[in-house]
Design brief:
This protein is mainly beta. Helices cover 5% and strands 43% of the residues. The protein has helices at residues 20-26, 128-131; strands at 2-3, 7-8, 32-33, 47-54, 58-72, 86-92, 102-108, 113-118, 135-138, 145-161, 177-186, 189-192, 201-204.
């Protein structure tokens, strides 16, 4: 099990997503590689890394990707973003481990977002009004766009407020000890930060 201590950035509540990379730079938040290949059928190895912090009221995520081609066909939130170049964040509260209830935040490189929450086989999507609370920034064009061939480097940032965890009434993230995992998915490959599964890493926040 990997363990990641998530730094609190004080003096902020909700941060515009476009400002997250600079804010994380200022606070010396380091990138973590997403480099585990757990599916033999998907050997593709793009360069992917992420970094994470929180403000107490929101989780701040920044992904950095370099891949051989890029696409963002899904234009509507809660659409099929996993078929595009897509960064994913899975999150589980300790009390939900027994029933295997967890959240997945999946955002393609064009800023289209899917949020799900529940147990396998019963995972409703978040309502549109909840998804709109998650501010997103991408260094690429806004979706949709078809596949672009040739090496491409891009970044994605998300400000995920506590209200986005729509199955719970979270008071904030300070002092939490959660489970999570970080993924990158594209048509030809899937990569993880840790071994497959949302229970694989603890984040003392």
């Amino acid at each position: 099990m990997k363990e990641l201590h998530v730094h609190e950035i004080t003096g902020h509540s909700l941060v515009p997503a476009k400002d997250i990379p600079a804010l994380l730079d200022e606070n010396h938040i380091e990138f973590q590689a997403i480099d585990c290949v757990n599916w033999k059928d998907y050997p593709y190895r793009p360069e992917v890394e992420f970094r994470i912090a929180h403000t107490g009221a929101a989780i701040l995520l920044n992904y950095r990707v370099k891949e051989e081609s890029v696409r963002a066909v899904a234009a509507e939130d809660n659409g099929r973003v996993w078929e595009d170049s897509c960064c994913e964040f899975f999150f589980q509260l300790p009390e939900d481990q027994e029933e295997n209830i967890y959240y997945n935040f999946e955002c393609n490189c064009g800023g289209t977002l899917l949020i799900g929450g529940g147990r396998p086989g019963d995972r409703p999507h978040a309502p549109v009004e909840i998804i709109r609370k998650v501010d997103r920034w991408t260094s690429l064009d806004k979706a949709p766009f078809e596949e672009r061939m040739g090496e491409c480097g891009w970044q994605l940032a998300l400000c995920i407020p506590k209200e986005a965890f729509f199955r719970h009434q979270l008071k904030g993230f300070k002092g939490m000890n959660e489970h999570a995992n970080f993924f990158f998915q594209a048509e030809d490959g899937i990569r993880d930060w840790s071994v497959t599964g949302v229970q694989t890493c603890a984040l003392p926040i």
